[in-house]
Specification:
With 142 residues, this protein is of the alpha+beta class. Helices cover 18% and strands 35% of the residues.
């Protein structure tokens, strides 16, 4: 099938417009994929006992704990001083994250919500969900 654009100028304008659209689309795809980023991420499926880790701007790492099936995954986590833990609620009910020693406490948050805390001191930090007594976890900071 052949398209006819009345004049050479109209053909040129159509080619330029198409090329511009293609380049913008490619640029957005590269940006969305994090092209050129120096952060490293390792992700594993929830329930596998592993965590997702991302380098953070503060020099520490960010580690995720997934809240699902009224449990924290992983239940026990070992990190370094300066690392940030982000709890992600992927469960239907609301949850919170409350340190047994009062060091940190989130508000209740819905599915899709998050809470982050940066650990600045070595130690063992047991925590729980205030509305689900069997939902407990521990962060060990070395």
């Amino acid at each position: 099938m052949r398209f006819f654009f009345g004049s050479t100028g109209a053909r040129r304008a159509a080619v330029v417009a198409t090329a511009t659209l293609v380049l913008l689309t490619l640029g957005l795809l590269v940006a969305a994929c994090g092209g050129g980023s120096s952060d490293t991420t390792a992700t594993t499926a929830p329930g596998s006992g592993s965590t997702a880790t991302t380098a953070s701007a503060t020099g520490g790492s960010e580690v995720q704990v997934i809240m699902t099936n009224r449990s924290y995954d992983p239940e026990t986590l070992t990190i370094k001083v300066g690392d940030t833990v982000t709890w992600v609620n992927e469960d239907a009910p609301q949850h919170d994250v409350v340190a047994d020693n009062g060091e940190f406490k989130s508000d209740l948050f819905d599915k899709g919500g998050t809470f982050s805390f940066t650990f600045t001191k070595a130690g063992t930090y047991p925590y729980h969900c205030s509305i689900h007594p069997g939902m407990t976890g521990t962060v060990i900071v070395q």
